[in-house]
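The data are set out underneath:

___
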Amino acid sequence: MHRPTPIDEARHIRPRPNQLPRPIYVRMSDVPAGYSIGAHSHDWCQLIYASEGTMKVTTEAGIWIVPPQRAVWVPPHLEHAVSHATFTRARHIYIDRDAPVDLPDRCMVLDVSPLLRELIRAATEIPVEYDENGAEGRMMQVLLDQLRAPDQENLHLPAPKDFRLGKICDALLANPADDRTLDDWSQICGASSRTLARLFLRETGMPFRDWRQKLRLLYALERLANDRPVTEIALDLGYETPSAFIAMFRKVTGRTPGSYFR
C-alpha cells in the first residue's frame, strides 16, 4: 500500500475563498499527523472528504469520527473544529447554502459511493470558474445529487450540556479505558448516580454504559483506520483480552475489527 511522505505542515491547493466564485468550490489539502483547526464556521455548506487518513470533527453537539473513504457534512454557520491523528489527504467541497442539497441542517458522516468518489476527484481538476451551463456545471449537479443522509449515524458521539456530565465525559475522552461507575462519579460530581443516569439518558439519548461503549467504539475505529493492531487497541481500552474487545465490536457493528474497513 502506498504510504505518503511525512510532511511537517499543511499543504493547500487553492486558497480559502472569501466568497464562492461558483455554487461549488473544491480545495485540496495534505495535512500532517497532529494537525488541527480550532473552532470556526463558514457562510456556506461544507463536505470534507478524506481519501487517506482519519479526521475528528467536534461541535457543541458532539464528536464525529470520519474514517477513510467517508465524508463529513457541515452546515453553514456551524462552529466546528477538525483534527487529524495521522497524515490526511482531504478534499474540501464548499457548497452554496442555497444549492439544492437534500441533507439536514446538522453535522453527519456520509458514506462515499464509488461514483461520488470519482465525481469529487473530477471536481478537483476543473477550473474554479467552471461553466455552470456546460458539461462541468452538469457534473457538479450530479455530485450534489449523490449527497445522501446515511440510514444510521454510527460515527457520532453526542455531547451532553450539563456541567456535571461534562466532567465525566472529559475524563473518558482523555482515558476511554476509565471504568468507573456512576456510583463512583457521584462522589466527584455532587449528584446521585440516579440523577446522573437520568441526565445521561435525557441529554444524549442513551444510557451511560452505552455512551461509554460508543466512545470506545469510535476510539477503536479511529485507530483501526490507521492500521493499529487489534491487541494494542483492546489493551488501550482496558479490555483484559483482545477476544473480549472483538466480541464487543462485533455485537455493536455486526463485523469484526479486521473486516470493518474492507
